[in-house]
Amino acid sequence: MSKPFWSGVFPALTTQFNRDQSLDLDATAAHAEVLIKSGVTGFVFLGSLGENQPMLASEKRLVIEAMVKAVNGRVKVLSGVAETSTAEACRFARDVEKLGVDGIMLMPAMLYKGDPRETMAHFRTVAKASDLPIMIYNNPLSYANDVTPEMFAQLADEKKFVALKESSGDVRRITDLHNTVGDRYALFTGVDNLALEASILGIDGWVAGSGIAFPAENQYFWELTRRGEWDKAREIYRWFTPLLHLDVSTKFVQYIKLAVQEAGLGKEYVRAPRFMLAGEERKRVLKIIHDGIKSRPKIPKRATDVHR
Question: Which pLDDT tens digits describe the chain residue by residue (308 residues)?
Fold first, then answer.
């Protein structure tokens, strides 16, 4: 699949729940609709922010079936694949292919810190399970498996591996990847509060998190980086950064869902074992969100009218 497919903003969307923790597919689709109008290129459903892990296998398939239908080919749809075994990852990849996704975002096997040989074998085995193009997700801080530039070089012979989401938290990896694998893969950042730094160093796309609560501003910021308008991008980024910091916390799901709620785009309900925020932590996060809403910058009309 061509590289232009793998470029732009691919928001990692939350899975919306009702108060009783049941799926709210209509609310999830409604949020996706707002993001489509903002100008995104694609979606990642059932990523970490989508609460993949605490969901039943049957629920995951319901989410993907409903979101493929709701998006209706207007932008690309990826499904996260974050299973605890290689066999289950293969089964899920086959199933979402049948449900009509355009690709998958593949994580290492969850709950196990594999060595490089095991991690690469997991990726290769899942690649054989379907014909879908694959974005490999590297997040050693959260998932204890670091996919290094050298490992990506070894994986380059598998044509289904077309993109990588770099979330090591070390922006130097962007340059290391360019130097090691050239333009073999489309390169996405997955760390919100390194989006500007990564853009300067050279990326193709952004799997955005916190920006799903501020889709117009998020898209405008991204477009500024594409045009190399660094002064304007820096100004937006300074406003955005306290909100982008919400993406790099153990409770990033609760933080971002609360931001989505306060922006009027969904609810903060999460799936156990997560709890909604409470006490001083909730007050602190709400202040960040409300300060951001009050001081949101003026941006071109096409974007500002998206959700107001």
Answer: 444 679 999 999 999 999 999 999 999 999 999 999 999 999 999 999 999 999 999 999 999 999 999 999 999 999 999 999 999 999 999 999 999 999 999 999 988 899 999 999 999 999 999 999 999 999 998 888 999 999 999 999 999 999 999 999 999 999 999 999 999 999 999 999 999 999 999 999 999 999 999 999 999 999 999 999 999 999 999 999 999 999 999 999 999 999 999 999 999 999 999 999 999 999 999 999 999 999 999 998 764 444 43
- Domain limits, the chain: 3-304
| Pair 164, 135: CB distance under 8 Å | yes
Distance (Å) of CA 276 to CA 54, 60, 256, 279, 282: 15, 21, 11, 10, 9
d(CA 132, CA 101): 8
Which CATH architecture describes the domain 3-304?
Answer: Alpha-Beta Barrel (3.20)
Q: How far apart are CA 53 and CA 112, in angstroms?
A: 14
pTM of the model: 0.94
